Amino acid sequence: RAPLPVVVVLVTCDPPGDRLDEVLRAIGSQDYPNLAVLVVDAGTADVTERVRAVLLEATVHRVPGAGGFGAAANTVLDIVAGAAYYVFAHDDAAPEPGAVRALVAAAERWQADIVGPKLVDWDDPRRFAQFGMTVDRVGVALPYVQRGELDQGQHDGLRDVFAVPGGFTLVRADRFAEIGGFDEEITFLGDDLSLAWRARVAGARVVVTAAARVRHAEAFAARPGGDDAVRLAARHRVRVLLTALLIVCISVG
């Protein structure tokens, strides 16, 4: 059958240096045959010319001051129709060739609604950044791998996970619309866990695949600074827990 339509939703917010060019080249090198690229520019400086210089066929949608990754990414619901999957990407995540194809193959094979790749260090791809996560009873995210751990294939059997870290995440389009997209009240830190948790409550399956590798600089998470990041993460964790509980109560009642 014909390849299912996939849209990469790349959210960018004033990325430094030439990192955006490298990310765009990596997306442009994907071998998936039915792939479109939507760049959602939430920064103060317009990146349209930078994008078109590297990836001419990409569509750029400006939403300056969108208020966070989730709010910017959700604009795909208003401007894109007919996609089977979205790949929500940070502007600091560069997929290796074949990553999108591997994510789609995993979703189809395992009937999954959310699929995450093996995230490796931006500067040293031999080492893990993240590869799936679970949570404890109070909603604290617990990674399955140690950051900086040498990748020797020791986690390649991992498949079903509770959630996948943001960076380069495949999501089934109809499931994304069903749960209302990202929680826009979560600006940074926790939007990935919130999405996966709400999707799981709705009956979704969440998996990771080692066949897709993505270099990730994790600059999004580093943008809130110091104590602000700690307070932000704690506040968002509480919101994720309460939202999931509310959804369960509504569905049962």
Question: What can you tell me about this protein's structure?
Answer:
- The structure is a single chain.
- By secondary structure, the chain is an alpha/beta fold.
- Helices cover 34% and strands 24% of the residues.
- Strands 1, 2, 3, 4, 5, 6, 7, 10 and 11 form a nine-stranded mixed sheet that branches.
- Helix 1 links the parallel strand 1 (6-12) and strand 2.
- The protein starts with 5 loop residues before the first strand and ends with a helix.
List keywords for this structure.
253 residues; two-stranded antiparallel sheet; 9 helices; 11 strands
Please outline what is shown here.
The protein is built from 9 helices and 11 strands.
Total helical segments: 9
**Biggest β-sheet: count, sense, barrel?**
9 strands, mixed
Mean pLDDT: 89
Our estimate of the beta-strand percent is 15-25%
Considering DSSP H and I runs of 4 or more, what fraction of the residues is helical?
A: 25-40%
Unreliable sequence segments:
none
Shape: globular
Structural class, judged by helices and strands? alpha/beta
Tell me the span between the first and last alpha carbons: 41 Å
Pattern of helices and strands: EHEHEHHEEHEEEEEHHEHH
Over the alpha carbons, how many angstroms does the gyration radius reach? 17 Å
Number of β-strand runs: 11
Question: Which SSEs are present, and which pair or pack?
Answer:
Elements: E1 6-12, H1 19-28, E2 35-41, H2 48-54, E3 59-62, H3 69-73, H4 76-79, E4 85-90, E5 93-95, H5 99-110, E6 114-121, E7 128-130, E8 133-135, E9 141-143, E10 168-172, H6 173-178, H7 191-201, E11 206-216, H8 219-222, H9 226-252
Parallel strand pairs: 1-2, 1-4, 2-3, 6-11
Antiparallel strand pairs: 4-10, 5-11, 6-7, 6-10, 8-9
Helix pairs in contact: 7-9
